[in-house]
Amino acid sequence: QQKVQQSPESLSVPEGGMASLNCTSSDRNFQYFWWYRQHSGEGPKALMSIFSDGDKKEGRFTAHLNKASLHVSLHIRDSQPSDSALYFCAASENYQGGRALIFGTGTTVSVSP
Amino acid sequence: ETAVFQTPNYHVTQVGNEVSFNCKQTLGHDTMYWYKQDSKKLLKIMFSYNNKQLIVNETVPRRFSPQSSDKAHLNLRIKSVEPEDSAVYLCASSQTVYAEQFFGPGTRLTVL
């Protein structure tokens, strides 16, 4: 059973549209989140982190965290074809001596011109 | 150039052979990792090293072993490969255990 679940599994968005991705942790110890993006043939690359309740915006990307429900979302505004990739949510315990990141199941985003 | 480098890009081998993958990071990070990405694209951590100490060792088969000569290098050896070892192996590094991880491009292993 994956501790970090993502939905949807795949998503198609028109160019210029909004993509919304969801992630939930099933372990209350894992409540510090990252979003990573992986283009085909490459390793994942971090987009942003979010550790506090509320919204965090970086350019066209906005993450929202609700610690009470252990739910984090990622919204991509004005989607571009270059945003087509596999998106991972990752969670950590973030205390001394804890374990490293646990990656979610992934969401494949396809942006059509 | 500062980054995470992996060799080889691809490797095809037969069941029972031994393989070794190399990883080097020039970011000056203290922690390095090996992940396995399967055909469903799931990312699962295999090992992590911090200051030459193994700090995470998920339940991977004993035929897998990490090898580190210094904090900039973390190689992965597979003693006797099996068909289920076919996957992409990704190396990563980070300044601390909870900091942003920087990934290499991966090594794709195919076991015939």
Question: Explain this structure to me?
Answer:
The complex is a heterodimer of chains A (113) and B (112). Chain A has strands at 4-7, 10-14, 19-25, 32-38, 45-50, 54-58, 61-66, 71-76, 85-92, 102-103, 107-112. Chain A is an all-beta fold and 113 residues long. In chain A, strands 2, 4, 5, 9, 10 and 11 form a six-stranded mixed beta sheet that branches. In chain A, strands 1-3-8-7-6 form a five-stranded antiparallel beta sheet, with no helix packed on it. In chain A, a hairpin with a 2-residue loop joins strand 6 (54-58) and strand 7. Chain A starts with a strand and ends with a strand. Chain B is mainly beta and 112 residues long. Helices cover 0% and strands 56% of the residues of chain B. Chain B has strands spanning 4-7, 10-13, 19-25, 31-37, 43-50, 53-57, 64-70, 73-78, 87-94, 102-103, 107-111. In chain B, strands 2, 4, 5, 6, 9, 10 and 11 form a seven-stranded mixed beta sheet that branches. In chain B, strands 1-3-8-7 form a four-stranded antiparallel beta sheet, with no helix packed on it. Chains A and B meet through strand 4, strand 5, strand 9 and strand 10 of A and strand 4, strand 5 and strand 10 of B.
Features:
heterodimer, A: 113 residues, mainly beta, six-stranded mixed β-sheet, five-stranded antiparallel β-sheet, 11 strands, B: 112 residues, seven-stranded mixed β-sheet, four-stranded antiparallel β-sheet, 56% strand, globular
* CA(first)-CA(last) distance of chain A: 36 Å
Number of helices of chain A: 0
Uncertain runs of chain B are: none
Gyration radius from CA atoms of chain A, angstroms: 14 Å
What is the string of SSEs of chain B from the N terminus onward? EEEEEEEEEEE
Assembly type: heterodimer
Task: Estimate percent helicity of chain B.
Answer: under 10%
Strand content of chain A: over 45%
Radius of gyration of chain B: 13 Å
Main sheet of chain A? Answer: 6 strands, mixed
Shape estimate of chain B: globular
- The assigned structural class of chain B equals mainly beta
SS elements, strand count of chain A: 11
